[in-house]
Amino acid sequence: MNDMTPTSAERAAKLEGMGCKRKRVEDIRFVQGKGNYVDDIKLPGMLYGDLVRSPHGHARVKKIETAKAAALPGVVAVITAETLKTVNLAWMPTLAGDTQMVLADGKVLFQNQEVAFVVAESREAAADAVELVEVEYEPLPVNVDPLKAMTDGAPMIREDLKDKTDGAHGKRKHYNHIFSWQAGDKAAADDAFAKADVTIKEVIIYPRVHPCPLETCQCVASFDKIKGELTLWGTFQAPHVIRTVGSLISKIPEHKIHVIAPDIGGGFGNKVGAYPGYICAIVASIVTGRPVKWTEDRIENLSTTAFARDFYMDVEIAATKDGRVTGLRCYTIADHGAFDACANATKWPAGLFSIISGSYDFPAAYCLVDGVYTNKAPGGVAYRCSFRVTEAAYCIERAIDIMAQKLGMDPAEFRMKNLIRREQFPYTSAFGWQYDSGDYQTALKKAMESVDYKKLREEQRAKREAFKRGETRDLMGIGVSFFTEIVGAGPSRACDILGIAMFDSAEIRIHPTGSGICRLGTKSQGQGHETTYAQIIATELGLPADSITVEEGNTDTAPYGLGTYGSRSTPVSGAATAMACRKIKAKAQMIAAYMLEVHDDDLEWDVDRFRVKGNPELFKTMTELAWAAYHEVPPGMEPGLEAINYYDPPNFTYPFGAYICVVEIDVDTGQTKVRRFYALDDCGTRINPMIIEGQIHGGLTEAFGIAMGQEIHYDTDGNVTTASFLDYFLPTAVETPHWETDWTTTPSPHHPIGAKGVGESPNVGGVPCFSNAINDAFAFLGSTHIQMPHDHWRTWMAAEKLGLHA
Hints:
Strand order of the largest sheet: 3-7-1-16-13-14-15
Structural class: alpha+beta
Number of helices: 19
Strand content: 15-25%
Largest sheet: 7 strands, mixed
Shape: globular
Radius of gyration: 28 Å
Oligomer: single chain
Number of strands: 34
C-alpha cells in the first residue's frame, strides 16, 4: 500500500459519521439571525388574527356583540362559534378521541378560552378590535381541583357529554369522568402487600407545568379559491398529522392541503396538537380569500395551550425487612382540563405511565388511572418526556427514597439491591414491558464512584451533627435517581394516533456526483436533526456528512411521518434512515460487482467503498458508484440510487441513567444552592457526543425549572395566577447550575444502529433527583415527603413545619 493512501480510520474520520463531535450545521444560519420562522413569513395581502378570550373560569355565554369591533377601520371580519357552525367547524376532534370547542359554544370552560376571532389588516387593528367585542357572561361554579371532580354536586364541566355513559376508553363513572385505565396484576400486587414485612404509602403530586417554548404557537393560512388548495405554515412538531387532522375537520381533500413547518423555536410537546387559532386562521382565509397570520402572546401560550403533568399519585411499595421490593400499587387521578386533548397513542389514555416500576425488579405491580375534567386549559402533552413517563419516574423515584428511609437504608444502596440485573435482559416487567438492554449496576456504581458518594455521605453526617449543635443553619441534601425511560413510539401493534400507526420514514436520494438529500417525516425544533441524520448516512453509505442535505417539515416533499416528540426521532426515523441506506448500499454493491466483474458475495465493505475480498486494491468508492448508478448499471437494473423506508419498530427503546445531586439549603430563607449535579446517561449508540451533551444540558435546565419553581397555578375562581414569566419560573444562565455529564453505552439489540434516544432523559431523571436532594436534606429531622415545586417559599415552609424557626 502506498504510504500516502489514507487508512480506513483516516477515511472514516473525514466522513464525520456516527461518534463524531460534528458541529451543528443548523447553527450557521441561527447564529447569524438567518433562521426562517413562522413570524418571518410575509405574504401579499396578509391579514392578522387575534382572539377574544374569556376572563371567567366557567360561565355561560349569553350574548356576543361584534358590531363595534367590525366597524373599526382595518377590521375585515369577526368570527364566532355561530359563524363556524355554518361550515360545521364549531367543534374539532382531539388527538385523544374527544371533541373540543374551536370558539366558545354556549359556555366557556376555562379562563382565557377562545370566544371570538378578529381578522384585520394589521396586528394592532386586530388587538384593538378584540377590546371592542362585547360578551355577556353568566358566571358558573368553578372546580379546579381534580380530587373533587367526581364528587357529588361537583360543577358539570362538559354539558355536551352529560348523557353519555361511554367515553373513548370505556364506561364513564361520573359526568366529569373521562376514562379509567389500568395495567398490571391487581391480585398479585394485593397478595404481595398482604405478605409484606414493610410497606409505605404516600400521595405524590406532580403539579401542572408548561413546556413554554421560546417561540409561541403560530401559523399562516392561505387558501387558494381557484385551486381549492390550502397552504398552512406553522409551528408544527408533526406536520403530516396536522395535514390529516386539517382534512378531517375542514373536509378539504388531503392532497389539496400543503403543510409546512419552517424553523421552530422549541416545542417540547407543546406544538404537537391542533389549536383553535389554527382552525380560525384557516376559516378566516377561506372566508376572506386572503392569507391570515395568527400569533399568540406569552400569556396566551402559558394559560391556554397544552400543559403537562397534573398527576395526583397515591403510591405504595411493599418490601421485605432486608430491603427487597415485592410489590407496587398506584392509584392516580389525572387532571385533563376542560377537554381531553392529550397527545397519547390511542391505546394508552394515560400514556406509558405503567413504566412506573422503573428500573427495579418488582415481582408484582398494578396501577389504575382515572382521567377527569376540570375548569382548566386542556392538554396533557409529553413535555420533554415520552407520554407520562416523567410522572411515572418522579413517582417511583420518590417512593423508592421513602421506602429506603423507612428501612433505614442508604437510598443508593437500596436501589443497587433492587435494580434489574444485566443478566435479566431482555427483561419483562410486571406491567408487561420488554426492556431491551441495560447494565444498571455498572451505571450506578460509576456514578457513585465519580462523585465519591461515600465521602459525600460522611460530609453530610458531620454537617447534620453541626446543625443539631446549632453551629450552622444550612442543611445538606444528596439526591439520587435511577430512571428507565420508554421511548421510540412506536410499534404499530401498540401505538397509533387517530388510527395511523406510529411508524416513521426516511427517503434518501444520492445524486450522480455523490452528494445527496434525505427527507424525513420528523421535524426538528432544535434537536440538530440536520446534523445527526447526515452522520448516520455518512457512516452507513461512506459519503461525507457535509455532502448530505437533510430536509423536514414540508408535507409535499417529505414521506408521511408522525413527527418529533417523546424521543422518537432517532429510535424510529433514525432507524428508517439506516434501513434506507442499507437498501441503497445493497444496490451499490451489485453495481460494484458488475463493474469489478466479480460476484456480489466476493465484495466486502470498507468505510466508504466496496473492495474485493483478498484483493483490497480492487475497489469502487461510493462516490464512484453514485456516478455509475446513472450510466453504468447492470443489465435489467433501474438507474438511480435512492430508497425510502417506513420503519415500524419491533419494540420501544429503553434509555436509562443514574443522576446524583448535592444541595445546600438555608433553613432561614429557604434558599437552595445546587452544589453539584452529575448526570450519567446510557442512550445506546452515541451519534454525536456534542449534541447529546447539549440535549442533556437543556433537559436538566428544564428539570431544574420544574423541580425548583414551575407551576401553572389556579385560584379557586379558576384564575390562572402564573400566566407570565413574572410568575412562572424560567431558569436563566444566572440560576442554572453547572452540569457534569457522563455515559455508559448499552446498544439496543433491535435497533439497526443500536441507538435509544436521549433528548427527554435528563428531564425524566433530573426532576426526581432534585426533589430527592431537597427531601434528603430534611429526612433526618423526620420529614418524609415535601411536594414540588421546591421554591424558596415552600422550602422555608417545610422548615417552619418542622419547627426549625422556633
